[in-house]
Design brief:
heterodimer; A: about 325 residues; alpha+beta; Alpha-Beta Plaits; 2 domains; 6 strands; B: about 525 residues; 3 domains
Chain lengths: ~325, ~525
Amino acid sequence: MKLLKLVRDDTNIDFLKWRGWAFAISLVLMAASVGLVATKGLNFGVDFIGGQMIRATFTQSATAPVTELRETVGSLGYGDPTIQRFGAENQVSIRMKLPEGADKNPELANAMAEKITSKLKADHPDVRIDGVDSVSGKVSEELFGKGVLALLAAMAGVSIYIWFRFEWQFGVGAIWSLVHDVTLTFGLFSLTGWEFDLNIIAALLTIIGYSLNDTVVIYDRIRENLMKFRKMEMASLLNLSVNETLSRTVMTSVSISLPLIVLVLFGPDVIFGFSMAMAFGIVVGTYSSIYQAAPILIWLKVGSHSFVPTDEGTGSKAERIGADFGAQP
Amino acid sequence: MLDFPRWRIWMLNTLIVVGMAFAIPSLLPASMRAQLAQFVPTPTINLGLDLAGGSHILLEADTSQLAEARLEALEDSVRTAMRRANPQIAIADVSRSEGELSFNVTDMSKVDAAREVILPLISNATGTRDWNIGVNNGNRIILSPASSGDETALDQAMDTAKDVIDRRINALGTLEPTIIRQGDNRIVVQVPGLDDPEALKALIGKTAKLEFKLVDEQADPDQTAQGKARVGSQVLPYPDNPTGLPYIAVRRLGGISGDKLVKADPTFDPQTNEPAVTIQFDSEGGQRFARMTQQNVNKLFAIVLDGQVISAPQIREPIFGGVSQISGSFTTESANALSISLRSGALPVDLTIVEERSVGPDLGADSIRRGVLAAVIGTTAILVLMFLVYGRFGMYANVALIVNVLMILGVMSFANATLTLPGIAGFVLTIGAAVDANVLINERIREELKRGRRVVQAIEFGYKEASRAIFDANSTNVIAAVLLFIFGSGPIRGFAVVLMIGIVTSVFTAVTITRMWVSLWVKRTRPTDLTI
């Protein structure tokens, strides 16, 4: 049987040639993302800013009457709603600030939800209320704090691991590429105005996990080659390592993209933003492993002196752990 | 590396079969699962509310109010104890302020006796004190809360509150609620399948503290209207007051509380035919109620619920037997709700809803249907691609992947874990990592073959060299998962749990199990040539 090859055997692309450009472009994109988040901000869901969100589907209509809703809900005396379509054209989320004093008296929040939903039902008999979320200011602050803390802890934790398993330069490279991926994803959400809620934090964590996985595979090969080719110039060595692992990189990225593409196209509308974030993250994560995590090692002066293959050296330790863990010789 | 002793093969196969067997109940339709449950235990995966639809309510206790209630209870018990002491100890100038209770012992020489009376009241079972006791100016006793006492009190109150909520929701019928304490002063209530939580909220949010107090009939209505009461009285809201004034003055002391009930049922008032609630005290409560009614015939007493008077009937005759009827402006529903609340006891603390989420069952069902569809299409695509690219070794990886998915489901069922939307993200990441492990191994075998190694050696090297990267990649994921579990909140934790389970099973299936299959194949066929 003739097997499919996604990458030709003799592939030898000079990835590192464009490292300066890639770095410059990444810096510009990161700066743009930070700028966007600082000026335009993120479209936080009620998870993070508190308030009430009502999700509704207009089952008999092709599109939801957003403009009309903005007016009718706005006229109920609870302030202006934020109304957004999500997923299908006939589904909307209506977000409101909680009425004054609702922290003490939840009846007020109930009354608001009740008033809005009954108004919707009166105006549109085909409306289906899919869910109501009320989050108090106190809880949303906690959720936000915990989400950010979890994100930072995960990034710091894995970078420290990489530092111990490889060298400090690799740890720096890993955390840099993670910061890169996360920043660009924030930028994407600011640019598109997609709702940023707790699920997106989970997506970011997945991106971190995936991007790191990619980085580790390339780093592992770089370490191996550093011990094997002690005279090779660093840029060529990185190129060699990236090329050697390229068919794996392509194969894995394609495999993991398949379910994500399907999720974006056919998945539940509620997780559209979530699926998009992950799909975006796979692309950015793969790119950053090759163009951020690897070249940074040149600038941080990693060379053959970094790994000395003695019996007690880092390299053999790594192999020993590998052997215990999987393959007994 | 390719040498697998027979016992090891048996052990691995057993693990696979057992792991997958646990997934079976979760995959069966509910009706078949019910049939199966008659013969064997059927642990299943719970679907999170975002997938199954339902209500999630987060309640927070008002701790300041708890301290106030403790102080009030302390004052009560101190007064009673002093009165019952033999000989009686007279106290005066009782004040509650800034969390402290203080009073004068009228007779200086009885201060020590008073201390002796108080000590058992403020000590708890563990030997520490809930309150610190001090004496000022020779005869003023001051009781201030000890911090351990506050914590214990909160802890006990929250446990009780949890039980009370549990009893109340169970009274509603067939719901299957999950009620758990969270942090120091919170309780999470999750009820799957309930998308309109109004009735539920009305039920669990009510403190349901019932009191019977004597009406202060000497009170000046004008003063009462302004919220002013005489010494020893207090003004309470009374929305249904027949006089039209929405307030009423009641005596602070001499009432009894309604926490000593054995029964509470909705009924109809035989005279007016309106909905009402009958209550029955336990024997102690019944005696106290009898005494109170006996001493106050022809007076009015107020029935107070959560600080609000619901009615103030006249005591026509002493009530013995401990059965009484509460009427007010009830509807059938509110009479029913009140009897449930009373039956299940009062909440020891006031609870406020700080977070509430409800997901309609349609949306949840839609999420599952489309989520499953996407998962099936996506996984199938991976399986096809793996086979096209790696042939036989791709098939090994594919079977391992399917085993992996079933084992994750199995472990989750066994642990009764909850699958949420972020959990699905964890699933995707895990499957990605599992596929990647096999890709790494197979690519390495290809490379080693290209370098001119013989088949068996290339396979050995492939597994050995790839293991290092697989180990590092999975270790970082473990670290991330553990940190997420520690620092994350609800949904993020759901992600972390799936990730942790998935890492273990995927390394097991993608590395160990495929290696076993490959080695059995190598042993059987002794291949000299390998297409990969």
